[in-house]
Amino acid sequence: MQLAYKVNLGQEFTTVWIRNDRKTIKFSDERCVICEGVEIADMPGLQYCNLLSGVFQAVLGLRGFKGTTYQETCRALGDPECMWTTKSE
Ligand SMILES: [Zn+2]
Fold first, then answer.
1. Is the pLDDT of residue 69 over 90?
2. 4 band by pLDDT with thresholds 50, 70 and 90
3. DSSP labels for 6-38?
4. Which residues are CB-contacts of 44 (< 8 A; sequence separation ≥ 6)?
């Protein structure tokens, strides 16, 4: 699953948004494979597919982008899409 995301990074996301100064990058995926079919109602604040944050951070690191990646929204918790943000250090 992680490998699939590595291979597809930059192609499979619903949106990829890069701020003008290139210090903030947002990814969103409304077909997140990890959250597919998952519904969590009783654990607010849980970031179900947060492990992908580490994958994105590693891939961006290989491209020379140093930053911190965290998850903002998650489909497993009822959000319409999974979204992650990377902020340059
Ligand atoms: Zn997800």
1. yes
2. very low
3. HHHTTTS-SEEEE-TTSSEEEEEETT-TTTTT-
4. 77
State the residue for tokens 């597809």.
Answer: 8
Distances, alpha carbon 5 to alpha carbons 10, 42, 45, 83, in Å: 9, 28, 24, 14
Cβ(69)–Cβ(57) under 8 Å?
Answer: yes
What is the whole-number distance in angstroms between the Cα of residue 51 and the centre of ligand 1?
9
Q: Which domains does the chain have, with CATH numbers?
A: 2-88 (3.30.1380.20)
Amino acid at 89: E
pLDDT above 50 for 32: yes
pTM of the model: 0.79
- CA–centroid distance, 79 to ligand 1, in Å, is 9
Integer Cα distance of 58 and 61 in angstroms: 5
